[in-house]
Amino acid sequence: MNNSAQDQLSVLFLAEGEQQPDAVMTRLTDFIGRARANLDFALYDMRFSDVLKNHLTTALRDAAGRGAQVRICYDGDKPLNPNLAAGQDPAPPGTSAFVQSLGFPWRRIAGMKLMHQKFIVRDQSSVWTGSLNMTDDAFTLMENNVLEIDSPALARFYTQDFEQLWEKENFDNTGNIKTNAVQLVFAGQPATARVLFSPGCGLEIDSEVARRVRSAQRRVRICSLLINSGTLISALVDLLRAGRVAVSGIYDRTQMSDVYRQWQEVPQNRWKIPALQDVIARAKLVGKNSTPYSSTSRHDYMHNKILLVDDTVITGSYNFSRSAQFNAENILFIESAPLAEAYSTYIDHLMQKYRGHA
Questions:
Q1: Helix (H) or strand (E) holding 58
Q2: pTM of this prediction?
Q3: CA distance 12 to 147
Q4: In this predicted structure, what is the pLDDT of residue 1?
Q5: pLDDT tens digit sequence for 36-78
Q6: Distance between CA atoms of residues 181 and 91, nearest Å
Q7: Nearest C-alpha neighbor of 309 from the set 280, 345, 278, 335
Q8: All domains in the chain, ordered by first residue
Q9: Are residues 290 and 301 in contact, defined by beta-carbon separation less than 8 angstroms?
Q10: pLDDT digits (tens, 9 = 90+) for 87-112
Q11: Residue 164 and residue 158: Cα distance in Å, rounded?
């Protein structure tokens, strides 16, 4: 099959203190600036300082002036003191007021857990997605990755998910979308990508991630805020005990410490504590020490959600957790040797950067 000039993929890697916020905003406004018909945003968190907000507003208004229809859906406001153990929204307040101040059609998306998406669909032919929230801290203090994919075939699936969210104004019972792998090009070489959405495909995602880890032949590399799916932890334990595949990577030590405390309070989850600690010790995973969460604290998390299995990159908004199965999320499975090497180099960089964190 011949790939069209449109079926291209590019990636942006972010790390704390290694890029200026206006540079990231320029990348975003360049994506927006190519819109001619539609811009659909599905966002968890959107709060910018005035300078960044002005750049974004100008880009959106210019797009609307060219005839593009702009729509924004975002996570519905949750309690000011959320029950984190129950998966309620830990995001600081302000997204609702920010989105509504932009002046474009919007929908607050309700649901029992999180509308955790971070994607934009442009002209039903291109997608911006990954782990990056729309905040100053996300642009400057957190480790994140962004994928820009020009593919009408892939964008069609994201559009279906967006339309479900927009019409229902609730993410429960969304995301049950039948998808297939699409052909792409990265670094001049063929690639394939398949997207899955939760909550509709949440159980399938959890099973597929663990299946791919269990079937690894050469390497598994982790670059993840959280590692708290019991299915994934069990697969990693088995892989490490077998000793036939190299496992390495980085996670957010501070945020996982909060998860340990939550697990300790739930008897059926306590087994995960020694199991994950065994994984971390055997694989010598590097931990970033971030700032403990509060709505007003410095938000400097190792925020990626990446698994690298041989030459497959698994990434998106989906944390590797049981809660993510019930959130509104997207996750990509991308088969590409050069893309996997780009992600592997990024993981090496972050491991080196944080290896000294005690």
A1: helix 50-65
A2: 0.95
A3: 6
A4: 36
A5: 999 999 999 999 999 999 999 999 999 999 999 999 999 986 6
A6: 33
A7: 335
A8: 8-354 (3.30.870.10)
A9: yes
A10: 556 677 899 999 999 999 999 999 88
A11: 10
